[in-house]
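Quick one: structure for this chain?
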Amino acid sequence: MQSKAKTISFGPAHFINRDLSWLEFNQRVLDEALDKNNPLLERVKFFCIVSSNLDEFFEVRVAGIKQQIESGVAERTIDGLTATENLRAIIKRVRRMVEQQYACWRKELLPGLARNGIRILNLPELSAADLKWVENYYRTQVRPVLTPLAIDPAHPFPQLLNKSLNIIVQVKKPQGDQLLRHLAVVQVPRALPRLVPLPRDDTRRDHVSLGLLIGHYLADLFPGTRVCGFWHFRVTRNSELYIDEEEAANILKAVENELHNRRKGAAVRLELDRDCPMSIRNALLRTLRLVEDDLFLVDGPLNPTRLMAIYEGDHSPELRDAPFVAPVTAPLRTRTDLFAAIRERDILLHHPYENFSSVVDFLEQAAADPDVLAIKQTLYRTGGDPHIVGALMNAVKNGKQVTAVVELRARFDEANNILWARQLEENGVHVVYGVVGYKIHGKSCLVVRREGNNIRRYVHLGTGNYNPTTARLYTDLGLLTCRPDIGEDITNFFNLLTGICQFQGMQKLLVAPFALHGQMLQLVEREGENARKGLPARIVAKINSLADRQIIEALYRASQAGVKIDLIVRGICCLRPGLKGVSTNITVRSIVDRFLEHSRIYYFENACQPQVFVGSADWLPRNFFRRIELVFPVEDGNLRERVINEILAISLVDNAKARFLQADGSYPRAVPGKGEKPRRSQFEFMALAGAEEATRRKPASGKSKHPQIKVAPSPFARRTTKR
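Got it. Here's what it folds into:
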């Protein structure tokens, strides 16, 4: 039946603010720290992740908004705010979040850790034996690396490193008949553990804070003075890299030079102990050229990311999620020749539920196989993994032509990428640093193999990075195939990245920034046309972020035409669901759980001839227009049905960790409908992979205090199961 929906002009009220939407995602991460159903150490992990996320948000997003304000750029956000209004809204929301975060630490996590034998002690709580050990530790390990920095006309305020922990000290020094107040700074050494473990012969895990330990011995650093007080503080700086690629003769050198500037970029946030006197607060703000809105007073440990030391190690298994070791994907468990297995049929990999070792094995076999002639691979965040990098270097030693397209500007991994890119070059790998003006974000590996008198191309495509470490923590999809049309497309793709040529189109692949945006719009609009013709129409997309205005407006039009749309959006979502006459057919859910949801899947019903695409691109302007992205079809019928009936269907019935976006921007937690059992998608994926052990541990008792919403079983799951 044709929709009679009126054409609506979409304005600011139809969109959610991008930055506030991201902050709501970080709130969902914080909610996992607040959730008493989660094991204690997992709650600590989420508590730390919240701070790490906020650090990057201030370093990049808030810094960018501040620059926009300073430059006088007059433009509005998608929801109609000026830059100044946007910044005010951000600061207000972050203050609420930080208060809740530290209240959780003081009232729940810290006491809970102490009850379980993991304590962070103040020095007055230490025994005489502990104090003796601490003093020796200070004398031998800490004091030699400390540098007290006076602040006076002869000693200007020091250039403090981005996100480093520092101590502002107030001392009184005799001068004639008077005691004059002076300020000084002591930088807490980054090279030392922020939590110093105390020696124990039993199972207790006691620590002292390095910052408080240094504070205890400040009189030793300032002899002849009286220490009046000390307070910890931390400065967050603008960390965006500014590189004019057109002017830079050497991208590697340009990125390397700019990394030095990142450490001393303009300050954007000051975190300070809550009890610091007003006069010192104001002095720090003036020195850093910040205002009151940039100051965050903290009642707890600054830089909680360093508290991950509590989580690390193999201690206290009862306070963690049950261990999970992913099995090798079923089609490869009994196969030693991966190339033979891929020739039989395409292989879909679902990480971390299926082991990433299959991808590493693919590379290592290619490196060792005498019939392999060439390997080409994109590298974004490998972490310098010795297996990935080692396989490429071994391939060179074995006489193969090896090309690595390295993206140096993978944010906050730049320094690491430079190190192993140089290592690859030194070992004979031909390293290319991408395309001027674009980040290389697509994930692909091409292996060219001689088989008799023919050449066959084997390809791996994925949604995640070639990084075995993050592959155990992120949910991603990968495809191993030797389809000739895919092989031809990937050959042309690498020629585009390494040579001098224009984009000529692809047979199967969707590539940004050349065609992906327009093709995605066409796919969405086709579903709307089908709905108007009375044909089956449906859209399901699983992505990390949605902020592209044209895509959102196309989804609104499809919804008005009667298309049922389910979006699984982990983070930013600027689409506002549930608006009468606009988005009543759209649901948006976010899943935050043990693993970081990272796979991107796009499903289009296509009048009962469903198309499924998988790729590296979110629905953001940067992915469509400022990055090289790869999206590929899943054409094997069995694999396509697996993506539909297993991965998407199970994600859509999650009523344990899913949150549903409301029209007002809130995200109430899903709960089972009447007569329904709890469904936790990540646990079900672990069970399907054959690793039930990780799902057996029951959650702690206690009901969530967060807003909840009942969710019925997904009609998508029921319908596709019967197909």
